[in-house]
Amino acid sequence: MNAIVTAVSSNPRHGFSKRNQIFIRLLAGLGVEGDAHAGETVKHRSRVAKDPNQPNLRQVHLMHAELFDELETRGFVVTAGDMGENITTRGIDLLSLPAGTRLLLGESAVVEVTGLRNPCVQIDRFQKGLMKAVLAKDGQGKLIRKSGIMGIVLQGGDVRAGDTIRIELPPGPHRPLEVV
């Protein structure tokens, strides 16, 4: 199966969910045009409170639609944009990508993967028990965060549902994703 974009979403205000759009425009060094999290410096409220001048490594939030399938089997109803992602994907194991991977989206956009999204309490406010459902532990007891990945925009462009996603891995050795 080819990796594709299944939905794109944005929200001009800080909030948990984002509305699906026909397309989103990615702006190099900033993120999603018109989205509350766009900017060169961090825009997530908890991070702004710590240091408003730190670089924004969370310009674009990507989530795999396969997570929605998994959650549905556990009784949750989650659709594209509900958990605040900008780009919903299918056919790519986002969580296994190494840091520095470049995702070529549509005709011209390029997003560099910076790390994992750390789920927050807002997830349980959206649907009770959802936080626990997006966390797991591996065989060694290490926490697995399933709620998507974050990235920065290296090259702008329009992205829409149906666009293909091409993957460029960074030179090795590869670094696993950590929370950003």
Automatic annotation (TrEMBL):
SUPFAM superfamilies: PK beta-barrel domain-like. InterPro entries: MoCF_Sase_C, MOSC_domain, Pyrv_Knase-like_insert_dom_sf. Residues 19-168 form the MOSC domain. GO terms for molecular function: catalytic activity; molybdenum ion binding; pyridoxal phosphate binding. PANTHER family: METAL-SULFUR CLUSTER BIOSYNTHESIS PROTEINS YUAD-RELATED (PTHR36930), MOSC DOMAIN-CONTAINING PROTEIN (PTHR36930:SF1). This is MOSC domain-containing protein YiiM. The lineage of its organism: Bacteria, Pseudomonadati, Pseudomonadota, Alphaproteobacteria, Hyphomicrobiales.
